[in-house]
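Mods, move this if it's the wrong board.
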Amino acid sequence: MKLIIINGPNLNLLGKREPEIYGSKTFEAFFKELQLKFKEVELSYYQSNTEGLIIDKLHEIGFDYDGVILNAGAYTHTSVAIADAISGITTPVVEVHISNVHKRETFRNHSFLSPVCKGVILGFGLKSYDLAIQSFL
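Not the wrong board. Structure tokens:
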């Protein structure tokens, strides 16, 4: 099984940014743990702060991978373009969020991505990614 985790804007700051919401572990350290836990999965990781680069990555892998785990960060609430990219590919996408976005600012309650994703997992911290991987197994 071939899966990719795609993280959007500001997720490169995990471990430094708002640890009370996002925790103190870097995503790189957590990703190594995921690779060890899910040895049967070919797991790759991509992060970009740029909307167009996220779209380009979805187009690049969207017909060859078994699944995408996407945390589009704030683009979740603003990007029709990323939603269109998800609609345009055949690889299923699971939307993931570290925090429970419904317990935060009201603008975070709407996702342009959820209607075009296979499912949504949110609010379980970094374990949300683990649960998303399990959803493909």
